[in-house]
Known about the structure:
It comes from Pedobacter nutrimenti. The chain is an alpha+beta fold.
Amino acid sequence: MDPNNINIHVQNPDGSLTSLEAPVDMGLSLMEFLKACEYDILATCGGMALCATCCVDVLEGEEKLNEMSDDEYAMLDTLPDLLPNSRLACQLQLNPAMEGLKIKLHDGIA
Length: 110
């Protein structure tokens, strides 16, 4: 595997997994990467943590992620179906520590 790439696993609505190779050397957020992979993410605010339309549920690897900012927490707190493992993909910058991350699009999003 290229040292500039990590594997991210996306759980599909039918329960199957799709493994994606994500570049960590381009400065992309998880939201930007998922949109580039043609996942149905609105990202209405363009990645400013203002809309929660890029919400994902982290199934494995939550401990690998950066700490949640106050802005991200405040936006997530507006969701009626918030889960303890929900995060905004726009606030998760792809980095080598995220190798093996397993997510699914938040039920209310896709």
